[in-house]
Amino acid sequence: MSHLTKDKPKLLARVRRLKGQIEAIERAIEAEKDCGAILQLVASVRGATAGLTQELIEDHLRHHVILVEDETGREQGGAELASVLRTYLK
């Protein structure tokens, strides 16, 4: 995805933050922290994942549906997005 190249540092920073948050959950479980604190960490990961997902969906929509000039490419981009949304919303 060449269009992701310009946002690559920002996307990688988000992924690295998520990785750190997941590792914090692991450490909290290993340390037998309070379940409320662990739930808060999990909620943070969910929010961060949702933010990353939203950004990627918007980018896909823009570059593979809206800006595509040929109908076949637009249909393919739309089908890809629909497939991901079906999985995401399960």
TrEMBL record:
Gene3D superfamilies assigned to the protein according to its UniProt record, in alphabetical order: Metal-sensitive repressor, helix protomer (1.20.58.1000)
Pfam families: Trns_repr_metal
GO biological process, one term: negative regulation of DNA-templated transcription
Single GO term (MF): DNA binding
Family classification: Belongs to the FrmR/RcnR family.
Name the record gives this protein: Metal/formaldehyde-sensitive transcriptional repressor
Source organism phylogeny: Bacteria, Pseudomonadati, Pseudomonadota, Alphaproteobacteria, Rhodobacterales
